[in-house]
Amino acid sequence: MCGIVGYIGPKEAMPLLMEGLNKLSYRGYDSAGVAILENQELQVVKKKGKVAVLAGEITKYTFGGKIGIAHTRWATHGEPSDRNSHPHADCSGKIAVVHNGIIENYSSLKKHLQEKGHKFASETDSEVIAHLIEVHYKGNLEEAVRQAVLRMIGAFAIVVISKDHPNQLIVARQDCPLVIGINDNEIFIASDIPVLLEHTQKFLFLDSGEMAALSVGDVRISTFNGNRVQKLPQIINWEQGKIEKAGYEHFMLKEIEEQPRVVRDTLRGRLLAGGLVELEDFALPEDYLSQIKRIYMLACGTAYHAGLIGEHIFEDLLRIPVEVDLASEFRYRDPILDENTLVIAISQSGETADTLAGIKEAKAKGAKVIAITNVIGSSITREADHTIYTRAGAEIAVASTKAFIAQQIVMFLIALRLSQHAGSIAGGVLHEIAQALHDLPVQIQSILDNHQPIRDLAKHLAQQNPCGHYKYNDFFFLGRGLDEPIAREGALKLREISYIHAAAYAAGELKHGNIALLTSQTPVIVLLTQERIREKMISNIMEVIAREAPVMAVAYEDDNEIASIVPPFSGLSSNVMRIPRTISWLAPILATIPLQLLAYYSGLERGCDVDQPRNLAKSVTVE
Ligand code: AGP
User: Fold this and answer.
1) Fold of the 249-444 domain
2) I want to staple 397 with a disulfide (CB 3.0 to 4.6 A). Which of 81, 161, 252, 596 is the partner?
3) Mind listing the pLDDT tens digit for each residue in 47-104?
4) DSSP symbols for 442-506
5) Catalytic status, residue 2
6) Ligand 1: residues whose CB is within 6 Å?
């Protein structure tokens, strides 16, 4: 995600802005910039690359101004480059803005502005904001910003400065974070609290749909429609240790908790009324879509599990054969592909060597390749024919969580987009799917809000015997159908975060050798979201119980049968992890959340480094 900093007060702004950018760098970014106002001049310096590159550039100039804004950019529209970096200015160069978020209607706004003669210097959606303010500016910056934000659709947190208003910052937010830090004679702006705690513990928090005109000694907060709002400052005093993770103990938990926002962002502007889908950069020609005879999914690790989910969804919705392959296997087995094969390569980092090599192999055989990645400008975007971005924001923890959820969303959107071409989904089903997608963020939030039983379960599973050995060291994860890839993902998370040996099996495979391992010391986690094969799954659960293995389940909140099937653990409130009901295709997304939390809390209970597990790297850029 992008990072925003602003300052107005008696001190030189530049050092404070650069310090803020450095503190925001944990959010992940690919460029940075600053704008300082001094003697009615607006000085803007912005560079692709790290804050250090920007710092090197600003040493060429002198900046004495006491008001400024700064930004670290995580590219969403337009590749990382100097000109796409923020701040962005209007045509007159009098107004500068920094923006975090996505302006969904930027292309129509940009077209309209260009028709009115505005010249754009970048490919970004954000630059539209500066020109919109310019259009509405008649001497009152606050009102010009108000008129501009009323025309913007999407998510945004912005800070605006203008040559003509040297003592004023204007901020506005819609669904994106922004905090205002205040002291007696200075005002700070930032994307999150930790950036400012060194300077103040007094904060004002705008709600979505609110804006503020900020001058030292004069703070005016209002709704976008102009209604004044009174806010009382809040005192925040986090201990320094949590600074980097915006108050969270670990990046992994922060990123798990970001998932409702990630779903909203990844859907934003793509899922339209009635379930229609519009995907930027999905420029496959319609006649090509008609010739697709097979689809291949290529990925590694968690991304591979997203591919397995995609296999079910694509085959259900498109009735086109899909094959999912580990990229490390695909690249060496001389796969049978041709120009009628569509390859979808999935990679959070966009740098995984095996996946990149697999793409090269696929293209050499004439296949078209779509990449699904979280990192704009990553290597995979240069190897693939088209790229559809997950909008999870920087994923810092080695364990992939929010990106996995976003990958599933994008997979679904691609399937819907392809089905639109084929006309293979009835309107009623499309409407049901669209509603279920829209319901996801609130449903995920409800699971996150009810995480204590999962934490208690992790504690129970980490119990030690008198000589300090853990009672449980071998876990089974079982699922059928769409639950099977999530069983794999839950097992992978537990392995990589808490170093427990955990294996996932298609539940039907139990009797083909695997059940021999079950004892009363082998916890078994079963997933029960797929109604079509529920009875079969319940039979498997009975087989497990008959071997006295402790059973935990992921099941719907309204599943009243499971509690009578799965014997409870003594002294534990529940061994059923509940999720809200949704359509079967989206159940994997909801079922993932409890398993992420189980892995996270199990890792904590076992004293593991949950953000940087031993032997692992965030991106495996070598074979
Ligand atoms: C997931 O938690 C792991 N860190 C790992 O399996 C990861 O998914 C895999 O290395 C693929 O990475 P990518 O998505 O960046 O290609």
Assistant:
1) Rossmann fold (3.40.50)
2) 252
3) 999 999 999 999 998 889 999 999 999 887 788 899 999 999 999 999 999 999 889 9
4) HHHHHHHHT-HHHHHHHHHHT-B-TTS-BS--EEEEEE-TTHHHHHHHHHHHHHHHH--EEEEEE
5) yes
6) 300-303, 347-349, 352, 355, 398-400, 496, 619-620
